[in-house]
Amino acid sequence: METITLETTKETEKEAKAFPEVILEQTEKSVLETFGKIFGSTERRPAREIECRSWIKIAALISFVGDINWSFGLVLPKESIEAMAQTFAGIEVDFESEEIADIAGELANIVAGAISGNMESVGYNVQLSFPTIFRGEDYEQLIPHHFISERQHYRANGYYFWLKMTVMDNF
Q1: pLDDT tier at 32 (50, 70, 90 boundaries)?
Q2: Which string of b and e fits 53-91 if b means at least 16 CB within 10 Å?
Q3: pLDDT per residue over 119-131, tens digit each?
Q4: Average pLDDT in the chain
Q5: What are the φ and ψ backbone dihedral angles of 36, each rounded to 5 degrees?
Q6: Weakest-pLDDT range from 35-39, 68-72, 138-142, 145-149
Q7: Cα dist. 107→17, 39, 54, 119 in Å?
Q8: Using one digit for the tens of pLDDT, what is the confidence trace for 40-59?
Q9: Which of 24, 97, 120, 142 is the most exposed, fewest CB within 10 Å of its CB?
């Protein structure tokens, strides 16, 4: 039996890169500030150890271009967005309505605007896109191999949500 030895070179190694800390810090700061003002008690939570792909949820995706190109998805489970919509809009909004998509998009815009301002305050130029909204269950955002992603989990006034951030690994 012949033994084959493979040598590892820099071309075959892919060094793991960390997600840009400035984005993580400014995103957390922005979420805590904006959602805290809108919904009251808002806190960062450890990553949830449950399978949430099968949940019924709505997501608003916004991209940032500038000194660092990246995107985030604000993901809100059905129970969370319905309760948050009641607080935010002051009326009961059905999950299947177009209004719930408008509210999810507006919440993402508010957070994205705060992130943009906070990034600029620490020396990064960023512009943001309009939100793209997804609604359903049993879906996930797939990330190509040359991207890095991070999640931040939160709870606002007892309701869970998270942000999934994505950046190319050559940022």
Answers
A1: very high
A2: eebebbbbbbbbeeebebbbbbbbbbebbbbbbeebeee
A3: 999 999 999 999 9
A4: 86
A5: -60, -40
A6: 138-142
A7: 30, 11, 23, 18
A8: 999 998 876 555 655 789 99
A9: 142
**Tokens 């075959």, residue located:** 12
Q: At 50, which amino acid appears?
A: I
Residue 118 CB coordination number (10 Å) = 19
What is the helix, strand, coil percentage profile of the chain, to 5? Answer: 30, 30, 35
Residue 115 to residues 23, 142, 146, Cα–Cα distance (Å): 8, 23, 24
Among 61, 60, 19, residue whose Cα is nearest residue 151: 19
The rounded distance, in Å, linking the Cα atoms of 35 and 32 is: 6
Report the distance separating Cα 163 and Cα 103, nearest Å. 16
8 A C-beta contact, residue 40 and residue 156: yes
